[in-house]
Amino acid sequence: MTNDFKIQHHFPLQGLNSFGLIASAASYLQVDSLAALQAVRADPRLASLPRLILGGGSNIVLTGDVPGLVLKMAIKGIAIVGEDSEAVHVRAGAGEGWHAFVQWTLAHGLQGLENLSLIPGTVGAAPIQNIGAYGAEVKDCLLSLTAFDFDTGETFVLSREECRFAYRDSVFKHEWRDRAVILDVTFACPKRWQANLAYAELAQHLQAQGRTKPTASEVAQAVIAIRTRKLPDPAQIGNAGSFFKNPVVPRAQRDALLATHPALVSYAQHDGTFKLGAGWMIDQCGWKGRQLGPAGVYDKQALVLVNRGGATGADIVKLAQAIQADVSARFGVALEPEPLFI
Ligand code: EPU
Question: What are the chain's domains?
Answer without folding.
Answer: 8-73 (3.30.43.10), 78-190 (3.30.465.10), 238-341 (3.90.78.10)
